[in-house]
């Protein structure tokens, strides 16, 4: 099958590549661009481990063809920290609030939370839980993930983070 | 279990006529691609093996939500995320955002489209029953031109619709329910992202405490979405008193024929359709004026 020429921006840098049309975005990112932050969990668009940001949308990269992302602006977990290594507020939040144990779901969680906070800079706990309902975590029970996102929301808004009483 | 789709050629037309031309020329081996969140999983399982995909994402005219007289016309490629965010729909047809929010999960709603949801013919999809309830019609375009199909005549069986080979659904046209109407979509599901065990859509108007008009759609309790005409007729003129609701629920249950599957045995799913209907009626009444 003839390959397709695609161009996109990935984590701020232009990318040109040839792909088979059937190449999924997750495989393109991981195997052609060596961006292994987005994970393959269920491979059936349930778990959210492969979540990346695509033109201002959170998408499951296991269910999007790379050719569909032609011309798009894509951001993965690798594009979150600053060039000097300073962590993004969400990454810092996940570290400070113990928002991960095994860490497998974390790149997808952070990319989903990134878009959620772009759309709603001060979400309630319920809005956070609904907002990350397409991302599964089998370790944490979500409590600390929610706190990590609250931490980041507070930091990005420049207000002190107040952990809710247990 | 293979998770890599079979090979295909990718096409990205810029206009509806170009898309229709491609589908006609490529024939049965071609499929239209909308958001891809039904088709791509089926291709990964090799349940669908199209030789050509005609991606509609580049057809700008398939996007958008517009008022047209007493109707609202929604482009087929409008996503569920966009339905949730539409101020026009929030004020005029709130059941659409309510339904969108119980479809799949946030990521899927950014990609999943109204056109794909209604055109695919999957009895598990939520929007078709809502469209029956609202009396929507589908604008479709093929080589022979445009036609309009009432949603209530569109669904013929599981994945079998009135869409002819080579036709694409371009827009959904919905008559705006009267101001002051009440509506609700009640969906029983095992978890976020699941298809309905059973679900019910209700749109009604009240006048002096009585039901002036009522329409009911049911999801995933038959091979097609169901329009529960008899149940709605029973309720019209009543004050939604328990005895009448019970009779209407029985009439709605009587037209269901769900499959026994891992969401439960058939008789359970039929009963849940009744429970969802009773809850949707109560909530729609609460929201209605008059």
What does this entry look like structurally?
The complex is a heterodimer of chains A (166) and B (290). With 166 residues, chain A is of the alpha+beta class. Chain A has helices at 25-32, 89-96, 106-119, 125-131, 143-157, and strands at residues 4-10, 13-19, 51-54, 57-60, 73-75. Helices cover 31% and strands 15% of the residues of chain A. In chain A, α2 crosses α5. Chain A starts with a strand and ends in a 9-residue tail after the last helix. The mean pLDDT of chain A is 96. Chain B has 290 residues and is α+β, with helices and mostly antiparallel strands. Chain B has a five-stranded antiparallel beta sheet. Chain B has a four-stranded antiparallel beta sheet with strand order 11-12-13-14. Chain B has a three-stranded parallel beta sheet with strand order 1-3-2, with helices on one face. In chain B, β4 and β5 form a beta hairpin. In chain B, α10 crosses α11 (266-287). The model of chain B has no long low-confidence stretch (mean pLDDT 97). Chains A and B meet through β4 of A and α2 and α6 of B.
Strand order of the largest sheet of chain B: 4-5-10-6-7
Q: Topology as H/E string of chain A?
A: EEHEEEHHHH
CATH architecture of the largest domain in chain B: 2-Layer Sandwich
What is the strand content of chain B? 25-35%
Into which percent range does the helicity of residues of chain A fall?
Answer: 25-40%
At CATH level 3, the topology of the largest domain in chain B is Uridine Diphospho-n-acetylenolpyruvylglucosamine Reductase, domain 3
């Amino acid at each position: 099958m003839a390959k397709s020429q695609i161009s996109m921006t990935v984590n701020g840098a232009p990318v040109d590549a040839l792909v088979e049309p059937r190449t999924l975005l997750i495989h393109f990112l991981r195997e052609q661009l060596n961006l292994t932050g987005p994970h393959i969990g269920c491979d059936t668009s349930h778990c959210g481990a492969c979540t990346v940001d695509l033109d201002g949308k959170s998408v499951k990269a296991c269910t999007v063809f790379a050719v569909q992302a032609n011309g798009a602006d894509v951001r993965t977990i690798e594009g979150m920290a600053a060039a000097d290594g300073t962590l993004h507020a969400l990454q810092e939040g996940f570290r400070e609030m113990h928002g991960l144990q095994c860490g497998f779901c974390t790149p997808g969680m952070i990319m989903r939370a990134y878009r959620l906070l772009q759309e709603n800079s001060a979400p309630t706990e319920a809005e956070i839980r609904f907002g990350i309902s397409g991302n599964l975590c089998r370790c944490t029970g979500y409590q600390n993930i929610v706190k990590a996102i609250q931490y980041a929301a507070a930091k990005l808004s420049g207000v002190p983070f107040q952990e809710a009483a247990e | 279990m293979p998770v890599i789709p079979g090979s295909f050629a990718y096409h990205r037309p810029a206009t509806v006529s170009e898309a229709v031309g491609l589908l006609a020329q490529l024939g049965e081996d071609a499929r239209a691609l909308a958001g891809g969140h039904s088709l791509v999983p089926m291709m990964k399982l090799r349940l669908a093996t199209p030789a050509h995909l005609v991606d509609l994402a580049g057809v700008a005219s398939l996007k958008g939500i517009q008022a047209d007289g007493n109707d609202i016309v929604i482009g087929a490629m409008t996503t569920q995320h966009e339905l949730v965010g539409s101020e026009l729909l929030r004020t005029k047809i709130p059941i659409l955002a309510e339904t969108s929010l119980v479809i799949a999960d946030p990521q899927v709603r950014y990609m999943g489209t109204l056109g794909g949801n209604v055109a695919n013919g999957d009895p598990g999809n939520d929007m078709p029953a809502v469209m029956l309830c609202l009396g929507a019609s589908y604008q479709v375009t093929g080589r022979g031109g445009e036609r309009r199909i009432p949603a209530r005549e569109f669904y013929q069986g599981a994945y079998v619709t009135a869409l002819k080979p080579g036709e694409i659904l371009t827009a959904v046209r919905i008559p705006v329910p009267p101001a002051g109407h009440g509506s609700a979509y009640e969906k029983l599901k095992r978890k976020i992202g699941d298809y309905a065990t059973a679900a019910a859509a209700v749109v009604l108007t009240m006048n002096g405490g009585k039901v002036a008009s009522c329409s009911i759609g049911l999801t995933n309790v038959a091979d097609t979405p169901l329009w529960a005409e008899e149940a709605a007729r029973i309720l019209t003129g009543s004050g939604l008193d328990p005895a009448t609701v019970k009779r209407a629920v029985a009439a709605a249950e009587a037209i269901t024929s769900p499959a026994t599957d891992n969401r439960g045995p058939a008789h359970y799913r039929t009963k849940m359709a009744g429970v969802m209907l009773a809850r949707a009626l109560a909530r729609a009444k609460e929201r209605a004026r008059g």
